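Sample entry (199 residues):
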Amino acid sequence: MIGHIFGLLHDPQSEWKKIAGLPDEELKRMTIYFIFLGMLPAIGFYIGTTQFGWTIAGGDPVRITEASAIPLAVLFYIALMGAVLFIGLMVHRMSKTYSAETHAYKGFVFMGLCCTPVFLAGICAAYPIWWLDVVIATAACSYAIRLIYLGIPHMMKVPEDLGFLYASAVFAAALVYVVFVLVATVLLWEYVAAPVFTN
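Predicted structure, serialized as tokens:
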């Protein structure tokens, strides 16, 4: 699994071909890795917001209490796993439209692999430097989108022209999920898990 991750970061075209050739049983076994990889950003967020805090415009660090950070970190993890699950299911649901070869777990594995740069970049939240984290998060999300466009033709076994349309539809589903998470975040912060700031 680690070899596939480094392969996708180094040479995604050839690595997608290797992953597409894996038997279904091996793809199923890969699902467990994303459950653990998805914990990295949540753990980084917890450490960064409780131990170091965010510094904005050279002011004092802003921290939140450990008790309020735990539910926020758990909700963050659920949102990340929800993204992999929801978009992975959309990959599977759209497969009939594009005559692709897929199963539900294949969509989940595909999205887990595409989200790997985001999971790894989440470690940077452990020492939050606002401008640097924004740059790293933007780069990780951009690379994840690139992986979607490069990987769909190989993983779903569709021609390049259909693969572009398929990947664009997957990207649109991802944008819908992002809007849902933003709305849910506002509601949850207001009514369920509001952060409690330390003095």
